[in-house]
Design goal:
The protein is an alpha/beta fold and about 675 residues long. The chain contains 15 helices and 34 strands. Among the domains are: about 160 residues, no CATH class; about 70 residues. Helices cover about 40% and strands about 20% of the residues. It is globular. It is found in: Cytoplasm, Cytoskeleton, Spindle; Midbody.
Length: about 675
């Protein structure tokens, strides 16, 4: 009996976890909710709280399976025929202007509509009093008493008989509101619709709900979606007007040209939407978030202020601050302002102000939005002046000022969506800082400039440094480690972008999960054509690199073993056969007489390692330069197509300025450098 009871409890828990539980169990497993409004409508099923995996499994296993885009409606109709109660239930019919209680007497599965009649007593709520009983009856007659299923909210029933009906309608309602696009049906049927469209859009929806997507990117996605829908409607209108007219008139030719232009615009917007929907390519599509942030400029009085943020102020600290920071060589009177936290100090800054942050651990709930040329300096070592982010938010530091300097600080980020520091416009200098990241690290947007010197960055779940097209990024003597990728260079082959200017000198990039440096760019048609050959080539290069690394590891172990062997068993060396040459003499029994041999072997390994690092730097500079040259060729081709045989030298010289020297790449999971094609 105990075993049977445990099995029954196990079956019950499994079915209750599923939104497709057994109908044989008495009672509902769904919650209830009270409708908003002044009219006392009956309670309805609470179904809009479903988790990601519940919707994912419903669409994948029960509703859409492996259907094509053109088969979606048929698959949904077949699903509804299996789970929907055909009649005998009530629901609230909701539109933008009214809500009314109706009873369902039938279902038109092929049209995804319910056959309804008004319930008694008549319950209706609207924005005005014009929707009377007679008016609603007339409206239903015009609709032949058929309304869309997704406009119905099923009335709550404790018996559990209508659980499946409520859930099925919720899945259909969510699908047509959040997943389906009007142009999906015209997409090619070569791929599984669920894999190509449903899954990425569903993931994006829940990423937005759980605040894993920057608010600026969400706004961009919504705007792009609205634009695409509007242009697609115009395209359909033009196409229908052409198809209904068989004449070969000038007006029709004009309409065809207009239709082609609209089609190109729609396709361009659709590609941008797909980039955002794809979690791997989402951040390839950049957006300008703080372009409207206005700088304050100089104070009306023209004075500049030093803002002091003390954790605790003592007489000795005040004396040292006065000596080191508050009394420059001119010793003129300078206005001082004291603040309780760094964010308040930055918000009080005008052009040319300076913020000095005393040693302490500061917790900040907010975003540092710096639009003026100001300087933030920690008074002490970075580990002594810590600014830690509290609360959820898009990012930590947003820089749009013409000349911003941040030094001697440690920044710690938690519960973030964007990177720890974003340079949107102007120039930002980061010197002698420590950055403990959460998502991505530093982002250098288009037309922005970053100078990062003598700093340490780690912990990013994305790239440590993201370099956008048309930006200037200088990395000198930094450590970038324990990130997803070390440095990521965004695609700049698009005709609207300029090549970035990149300088990387004497950086230590190590222990990153992926590559030390990675370039993201689209695959060109010629590259797609020769994909198989390139894959073979890339695989061969990877294998060579692997074998080279294995050989170097073997060489190190061999040198250590030889050294230890000579120390412990010097006599064994005399038994080796004599060979000609100076190098062979070191391998014979005369090692004690030639102590420089071991040093020479270690020096050989060091030279091999130095040679590899030099090769890595050369490879990065070479590939980035070659990509810039490819962009140059694309510009030339487009100009020639437009009829320009001689191009402006400034336009044609938009090649990437690359200086990659003295960097060390160690223990990166996929290697020193890679290219990600999309």
């Amino acid at each position: 009996p105990d075993v049977q009871r445990e099995d029954a409890e196990s079956d019950w828990s499994a079915d209750s976890w599923s939104d497709y539980g057994s109908r044989d169990k008495p009672g509902t497993t769904l919650g209830r909710t009270v409708p908003d409004g002044n009219v006392l409508f009956p309670d309805i099923f609470h179904t809009d709280h479903l988790l990601f995996y519940e919707r994912f499994r419903a669409y994948q296993d029960y509703i859409l399976a492996d259907c094509k885009a053109s088969e979606v409606k048929r698959f949904i109709a077949e699903y509804l025929e299996k789970v929907l109660e055909p009649s005998g239930w009530q629901a609230i019919w909701r539109t933008d202007v009214f809500e009314v209680l109706v009873g369902v007497v039938g279902v038109n599965f092929q049209a995804l509509k319910a056959v309804v009649q008004l319930s008694e007593p008549f319950l209706c709520e609207s924005q005005d009093s014009s929707f009377t009983l007679e008016c609603m009856q007339e409206l239903l007659e015009l609709k032949e008493h058929q309304i869309l299923l997704q406009e119905l909210w099923v009335m709550y029933d404790e018996s559990g008989e209508f659980d499946q009906t409520a859930l099925a309608i919720e899945h259909i309602r969510f699908f047509y509101r959040c997943i389906w696009r009007t142009w999906d049906e015209e997409e090619e049927d070569e791929f599984d619709y669920f894999v190509r469209c449903v899954e990425p859009r569903l993931r994006l929806h829940y990423d937005i709900l759980e605040h894993r997507v920057p608010s600026g990117l969400v706004a961009d996605y919504q705007n792009l979606l609205s634009q695409c829908e509007e242009l697609y409607e115009k395209f359909l209108s033009v196409r229908n007007s052409i198809s209904s007219n068989d004449s070969d008139s000038e007006a029709e030719n004009v309409s065809m040209v207009e239709g082609l232009k609209l089609y190109d615009k729609v396709e361009h917007l659709k590609q941008k939407l797909k980039l955002i929907e794809n979690p791997l390519l989402r951040y390839v599509f950049g957006y300008q978030k703080y372009g409207s942030l206005q700088a304050k400029g100089l104070r009306p009085t023209g004075a500049k202020v030093i803002h002091v943020v003390p954790w605790t102020m003592t007489t000795s600290l005040h004396q040292m601050l006065t000596r080191d920071k508050l009394c420059p060589e001119s010793c003129d009177d300078i206005e001082l302002q004291f603040h309780r936290d760094p964010l308040a100090a930055v918000n009080a800054c005008y052009e040319g102000d300076k913020v000095i942050i005393c040693p302490g651990h500061y917790f900040v709930d907010g975003v540092f939005s710096i639009a003026d040329s100001v300087e933030l300096e920690g008074y002490g070592l970075p580990d002594d002046v810590v600014i830690e982010k509290q609360g959820k938010g898009d990012n930590f530091f947003d820089c749009t000022g013409a000349n911003i300097k941040i030094s001697n600080l440690k920044l710690v980020q938690h519960d973030a969506v964007e990177g720890i520091l974003n340079v949107h416009h102007g120039k930002t200098t980061l010197e002698n800082c420590v950055l403990q990241c959460e998502t991505t690290g530093i982002t250098v947007r288009t037309s922005a400039e970053l100078l990062m010197r003598n700093s340490d960055l780690y912990g990013a779940k994305g790239a440590g440094v993201e370099i956008y097209p048309g930006s200037v990024c200088t990395l000198l003597h930094n450590g970038i480690h324990h990130c997803k990728e070390g440095v990521l260079v965004k695609n700049f082959l698009d005709e609207d972008y300029e090549a970035p200017m990149i300088t990387m000198v004497n950086n230590m990039i190590h222990n990153n999960e992926g590559y030390g440096v990675v370039l993201v760019r689209p695959a060109m048609p010629s590259e797609i054509k020769d994909a198989s050959a390139q894959e073979t080539k890339v695989g061969w290069v990877d294998s060579v690199k692997t074998e080279e690394n294995e050989f170097q590891d073997f060489l190190m172990v061999w040198l250590l073993c030889m050294t230890v062997g000579d120390i412990l068993f010097p006599a064994l060396g005399n038994t080796q056969p004599t060979q000609a040459g100076d190098e062979t003499a070191c391998a014979e029994g005369s090692r004690q007489e030639q102590p420089g041999c071991v040093t020479d072997e270690l020096e050989l390994y060091k030279r091999a390692e130095t040679s590899e690092q030099t090769e890595n730097n050369y490879e990065i500079a070479n590939v980035l330069g070659a990509t810039s040259a490819k962009k140059n060729q694309i510009h030339k081709k487009r100009l020639s197509e437009l009829g320009f045989t001689e191009a402006d030298d400034n336009l044609m010289s938009q090649e990437m300025f690359v200086s990659v020297e003295g960097n060390q790449f160690k223990w990166n999971g996929k290697g020193s450098f890679g290219v990600f094609f999309f």
